[in-house]
Amino acid sequence: MDFVALNKPDPSKPTICIIAEGSYPYITGGVSAWIQDIISGLTNYNFIIFAISAEEAEPKYTFPPNVIGLVNKLLTAPVEKPKKTIPQQFFTAIESFHNDMMQKKDFTKFKDIFSFINDNRYEPSALQRHITSFHIVTQYNSIRNPLYQFSDYYWAWRASHEYMMKIMTWDLPKADLYHTISTGYAGLCAACAKIKYNKPVLLTEHGLYNKEREIDIKRATWVKGYQRDMWINIFNDLSTITYDYSDCVISLFEVNRNIQIAQGAKREKTLVIPNGIEIDRYLDLKTETRKEFSVGIVARVVPIKDVKNFIIMAKIVSESIPDVKFYIIGPTDEDESYYEDCVKLVENFQIQDKVIFTGKADVRRYYKFLDVVVLSSIREAQPLVILEAYAAGIPVVSTRVGNVPEMLDFDDILLADPKDSEKLAQGVIYLYNNPDYREKLVASNRNKVIQFYNKKDLIATYDNLYAKYISMYTQ
Fold first, then answer.
1. H-helix or E-strand containing 4?
2. What mean pLDDT do residues 451-469 have?
3. Residue 133 has what pLDDT?
4. 180, 191, 425, 469: least buried by Cβ within 10 Å?
């Protein structure tokens, strides 16, 4: 999709280009909600959304009036084939770049590779089919992959490099600042924009993209041996490139900041800005008392949220607390087969009378009466759901992921390893049996969220950062 104009830009306001991969505005969830909050809160800027997707989709968010345009770039879309002959010097530059990258972790020559591909619009498959490319791949295979078939190595190389080469043919919309919400392909886009337009780049990592991809790749059955290592190394290198070209590298909490630094981000560039919520929306909820003990999960019904683990926990808890209800609060249409599996699991456990799938809903309606919120996720960064629950006066039991242990004060009663449904159940049962402990948590957690996680502070911080870096590049 080319640039789609949405609202008339205000020429007196700077323009920010938000670069998002596989999230806003087509997927709901924490990262997308965060982007919507940033845009809605910073009305003194125009925004362009540059989305990277696998397929066409309809936006799931209503754009604020300061969103002036949308570009949805498909990684699977073909590139217009040029009629130019590819000169040998390009491949010499490619080989030199690879040698520097492999031997010294020096990515300086990346800008030359990008400029060459972007200026000439060479189609990725044409570059990959060139005889010199074949010779380069053959050489690397003999060094790094001697025990596996060359064909496996070759096709893994083509697949892993095609998207990167395709991205380098794209032109991002012109803006005063580029804000990428991950490394990976979005980060690569931001680096290319920095080279082409000489404008500031901000990176905000909610999780750590390369680490998340590494987990996915190691679980995948379609890669093996050096193919797996190749994919992991590429995502690590994309993180390094993004860090190199970003003016400011932001994480949500200190642990991730230290990992960014260990992976090559310069310490003086790094910054921690925690999530924030609109606290008053949750502080003022009127509590509803219900006869049954109410336990909820607020999440999309998708594998990464491990809703099946929540259901197994529900079965265990229901055997100790007869009068209990479980609410699965969130959209069910993102992965329909997974949702159907969850429904069957509830039926197999014969707890249909205790488990309710609400679908997409206003969570505040449920925060009024929930006694405990549970997170069963495999991966999280700094979940907004925990902050909302704290503000609403609800204790949380969660898997030990991302920043969650710190958010739960490293309380082992409330924490479980991913997939440990029995430990989650023990946490819920403990809170049921210890109402005084629940009340103690409610008071301390509310104070914590008021002090450290106010969305007004989040918006003000990004407002200052945008102004600071735009000013630096216009002097």
1. strand 4-5
2. 96
3. 77
4. 469
pTM of the model: 0.89
Structural domain boundaries of the chain?
A: 4-79+169-272, 88-163, 280-453
280-453: CATH topology is Rossmann fold (3.40.50)
Q: What is the mean pLDDT of residues 361-376?
A: 97
Decide if pLDDT at 83 tops 60. no
Query: What gap in Å lies between CA 26 and CA 10, rounded to an integer?
Result: 25
Q: Is the pLDDT of residue 1 over 80?
A: no
Identity (one letter) of the amino acid at 195? I
Q: Give CA–CA dist 95/236, Å, rounded.
A: 19
The domain 4-79+169-272 having CATH identifier 3.40.50.2000: the answer here is yes
Q: Is the pLDDT of residue 86 over 80?
A: no
DSSP conformation letters of 75-111: TTSPPPPP-SPPPHHHHHHHHHHHHHHHHH---TTHH
Which tokens in the block code for residue 430? Answer: 């403990």
How many other CB atoms are found less than 10 A from the CB of residue 381? 22
DSSP designation for 304? G
DSSP state of 169: T
d(CA 57, CA 196): 29
On average, the pLDDT of the chain sits at: 91
3-state helix, strand, coil in the chain (%, to 5): 50, 15, 35
112: tokens are: 């030359």
Say which residue the tokens 């999230």 belong to. 23
Residue with tokens 């700094």: 382
- Bigger pLDDT: 41 or 117? 41
Going by the DSSP 8-state scheme, the letter that residue 279 receives in this structure is: T
Q: How far is CA 270 from CA 96, 255, 267, 373, 445, in A?
A: 30, 12, 5, 32, 28
How many whole angstroms separate alpha carbon 323 and alpha carbon 292?
A: 5
- Is omega for the bond preceding 25 within 30 degrees of 0, making it cis? yes
| pLDDT score, position 324 | 98
Q: Residue 62 pLDDT > 80, yes or no?
A: yes
Phi-psi region of 121 (alpha: psi -120 to 50; beta: other; left: phi over 0): left
Beta-strand relationship, 46-53 and 201-205: unpaired
Cα distance from N-terminal residue to C-terminal residue, the chain: 34
399, 422 in Cβ contact below 8 A?
A: no
Whole-number Å distance between alpha carbons of 123 and 135: 19
Three-state DSSP class for residue 451: helix
Residue type, 56: E
Q: Using the structure block, give the residue that is written with the tokens 């997707």.
A: 53
**Which residues are bridge partners to 17 per DSSP?**
48, 178
Residue 147, CB-side half-sphere exposure with 13 Å CA sphere: 4
- With tokens 């490619």, the residue in question is 94
